[in-house]
């Protein structure tokens, strides 16, 4: 049996359906061509095995199952009959036909095949191939052997078996029938006697060797600095500490000559490193160094550009293609488009209008929103999370070739921003190389943000290896209502496989909140405003006949009576009666700005019919309506109390008025934690007064 194992194939897929199996790989040193796995593409877990002495070849077998004459130097089987099974059947059938033609041709030329080779059991494993496809076509158990010059039973320094991928690229290996006497085989093998239980009974020393051998090989990182208008002498040590935390990487710092100094002697050996990280924003390198860097990345080297490094080299064409988008340095429409996320269109747009490249407002915390959750970098991150006060770059422009924007942030005009959802995390393909571009990390406080640290570590590993094996980071640790910070040297400690405090998994999203369920808590005692505080405007709030009554104040901005407590996942109910002509609402998961106390966040709309009652508005964020479509205009019954039911769980928000569902949306851009607020809308001078009344305000925690 011949199997092709791609980077997605896992050991559990190989063994889950086998009642009993042994495995065997042989290690070959030197520069010989490798039988079984092509030398240039073999990869196990995160560590390459293409470098001597960690290559693999089908091991010798005492029964003669794997005789050398049946294998060519390129790792192809000279003669066998293929039975190709995979999820990508059309492609596999084409491969099978080609292989059968080759076999037929060789057979015609007299190429022999082993007498004991099972010609009916040849399969090709592609990405996602299920275990039953691999093992379901023969009742006979199979044997493999692991052999190594260095580690008994496991393939040398690169072995890390659980739960990593097996190979990268077009690695092949051969499956033979079980030897007649497996106990007589080479001592460098072990047996897998039951499906996943086989791994459970592996000796602890063997597993430890596998784990240690992979973990002992940190990424080899070259960090370049030397010129940067962002205090590189302070920030370089933080980048280094972030990457070296938990022995994730070994960082070598290369400091380029200063401004006006001769650059001819600056010639790092890029090829000696897995990935190059740039904290450089200064004068051009020598043409020889630029060419060497281009060759390194295009040949498959990794590159990470941090914050102001995308200001660098405006006249170096290849560099601008590597980073996708850049700022300042005279960049304009000739360099490429602006790239922005358009919330109303739910897609990225490219704007070729005239204008310079590069802009930022005040340094403030901002919410990052993942736009591609399937990418390895962002797959282990929350859908939205806060970065501490940082420069939010806007109006970047460039070639944007082969670029994928992973995350954006809204650049708020209130703080000097563009009013656009700007790219923050990006990946770019340059030749065979991978580039990770982060605009985060203006200064020391910004680099203390977990959003910066976590995305940098994950992006660097992806740029170096094409995959991310770091554990996920939970929303609880990244921060949703307040940006999380941490010591860069301890960045690895927040990587926790995403095990945040779990929410109630039994929520029935198909039904409105059940008012008869256990756990409801009253937020209003019917007599006082205890547990509430006023923010923002000057509207008056009082208690009258068991209700909270809010009265408008001429010339006042919007006013809010806010809960003292914050809430994240919950069900909320209240009854409300608003005067016709007055707009009101209830804030959920909201915050207030330090300066001026302005309340902002999602608001459940309250408005007399016909109107937008029950839809979700983003108060004071510049986003406007979160629910873009508003077909129901008459759910609210004027002149009487209306029962609202609200559910906020994760990024999902649902609203009912009475028994009619009005909203059911996903909102990854808003905070998932914050206070409640009863709004009295501002009115123009000479209008009003108007009143809005609330009663029976209760909440049920879903955590």
Which terms summarize this structure?
single chain, 703 residues, alpha+beta, Rossmann fold, Jelly Rolls, 3 domains, nine-stranded mixed β-sheet, eight-stranded antiparallel β-sheet, 11 helices, 15% helix, ThuA-like
Summarize the structure.
It contains eleven helices and 36 strands. It is an alpha+beta fold and 703 residues long.
Overview of the molecule:
The chain is an alpha+beta fold and 703 residues long. It folds into three domains: 2-215, no CATH class; 219-494, Rossmann fold (3-Layer(aba) Sandwich); 520-701, Exo-inulinase, domain 1 (Jelly Rolls, Sandwich). The chain is built from eleven helices and 36 strands. The protein has a nine-stranded mixed sheet, sandwiched between helices. The longest helix is centred in the first third of the chain and has 20 residues, at 89-108. The protein starts with a strand and ends with a strand. The model is unreliable at 1-215 and 497-504 (pLDDT under 50).
């Amino acid at each position: 049996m011949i199997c092709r194992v791609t980077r997605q194939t896992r050991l559990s897929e190989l063994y889950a359906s086998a009642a009993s199996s042994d495995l065997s790989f042989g290690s070959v040193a030197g520069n010989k061509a490798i039988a079984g796995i092509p030398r240039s593409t073999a990869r196990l877990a995160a560590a390459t095995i293409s470098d001597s002495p960690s290559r693999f070849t089908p091991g010798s077998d005492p029964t003669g199952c794997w005789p050398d004459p049946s294998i060519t130097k390129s790792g192809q089987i000279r003669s066998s009959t293929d039975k190709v099974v995979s999820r990508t059947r059309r492609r596999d059938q084409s491969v099978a036909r080609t292989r059968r033609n080759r076999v037929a041709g060789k057979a015609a030329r007299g190429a022999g095949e082993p007498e004991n080779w099972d010609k009916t059991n040849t399969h090709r494993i592609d990405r996602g191939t299920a275990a039953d496809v691999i093992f379901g076509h023969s009742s006979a158990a199979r044997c493999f052997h692991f052999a190594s010059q260095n580690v008994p039973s496991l393939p040398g320094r690169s072995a890390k078996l659980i739960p990593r991928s097996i190979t990268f690229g077009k690695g092949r290996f051969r499956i033979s029938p079980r030897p007649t006497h497996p106990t007589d085989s080479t001592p460098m093998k072990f047996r897998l006697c039951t499906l996943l239980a086989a791994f459970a009974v592996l000796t602890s020393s063997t597993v430890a060797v596998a784990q240690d051998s992979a973990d002992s090989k940190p990424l080899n990182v070259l960090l370049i600095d030397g010129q940067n208008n962002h205090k590189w002498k302070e920030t370089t040590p933080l980048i280094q500490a972030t990457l070296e935390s938990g022995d994730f990487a070994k960082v070598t710092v290369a400091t380029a000559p200063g401004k006006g100094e001769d650059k001819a002697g600056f010639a790092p050996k890029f090829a000696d490193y897995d990935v190059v990280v740039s904290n450089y924003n200064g004068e051009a390198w020598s043409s020889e160094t630029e060419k060497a860097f281009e060759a390194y990345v295009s040949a498959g080297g990794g590159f990470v550009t941090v914050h102001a490094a995308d200001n660098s080299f405006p006249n170096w064409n290849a560099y601008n293609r590597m980073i996708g988008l850049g700022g300042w340095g005279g960049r304009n429409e000739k360099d490429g488009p602006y790239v922005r996320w358009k919330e109303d269109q739910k897609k990225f747009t490219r704007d070729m209008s005239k204008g310079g490249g590069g802009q930022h407002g005040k340094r403030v915390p901002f919410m990052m929103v993942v736009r591609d959750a399937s990418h390895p970098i962002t797959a282990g991150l929350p859908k939205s999370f806060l970065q501490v006060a940082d420069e939010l770059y806007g109006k970047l422009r460039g070639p944007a070739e082969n670029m994928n924007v992973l995350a954006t942030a809204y650049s708020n005009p209130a703080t000097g921003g563009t009013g656009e959802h700007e790219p923050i995390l990006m990946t770019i393909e340059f030749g065979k190389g991978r580039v990770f571009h982060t605009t985060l990390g203006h200064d020391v406080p910004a680099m203390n943000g977990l959003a910066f640290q976590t995305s940098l570590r994950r992006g660097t590993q992806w740029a170096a290896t094409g995959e991310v094996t770091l554990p996920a980071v939970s929303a609880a640790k990244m921060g949703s209502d307040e940006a999380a910070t941490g010591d860069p040297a301890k960045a690895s400690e927040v990587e926790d496989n995403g095990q945040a405090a779990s929410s109630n998994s039994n929520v029935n999203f198909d039904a409105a909140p059940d008012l008869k369920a256990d756990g409801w808590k009253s937020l209003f005692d019917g007599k006082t405003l205890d547990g509430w505080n006023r923010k923002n405007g000057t509207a008056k709030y009082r208690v009258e006949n068991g209700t909270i009554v809010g009265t408008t104040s001429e010339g006042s901005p919007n006013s809010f009576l806010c809960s003292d407590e914050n809430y994240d996942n919950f069900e909320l109910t209240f009854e409300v009666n608003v005067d016709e002509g007055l707009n009101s609402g209830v804030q959920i998961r909201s915050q207030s700005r330090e300066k001026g106390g302005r309340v902002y966040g999602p608001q459940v709309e309250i408005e007399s019919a016909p109107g937008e009652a029950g839809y979700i508005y983003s108060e004071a964020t510049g986003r406007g309506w979160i629910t873009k479509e508003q077909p129901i205009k008459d759910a609210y019954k004027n002149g009487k109390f209306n029962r609202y039911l609200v559910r906020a769980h994760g990024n999902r928000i649902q609203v009912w008025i009475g028994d009619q569902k009005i909203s059911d949306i996903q909102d990854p851009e808003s905070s998932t934690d914050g206070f409640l607020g009863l709004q009295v809308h501002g009115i123009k001078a000479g209008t009003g007064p108007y009143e809005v009344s609330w009663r029976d305000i209760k909440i049920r925690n879903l955590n």
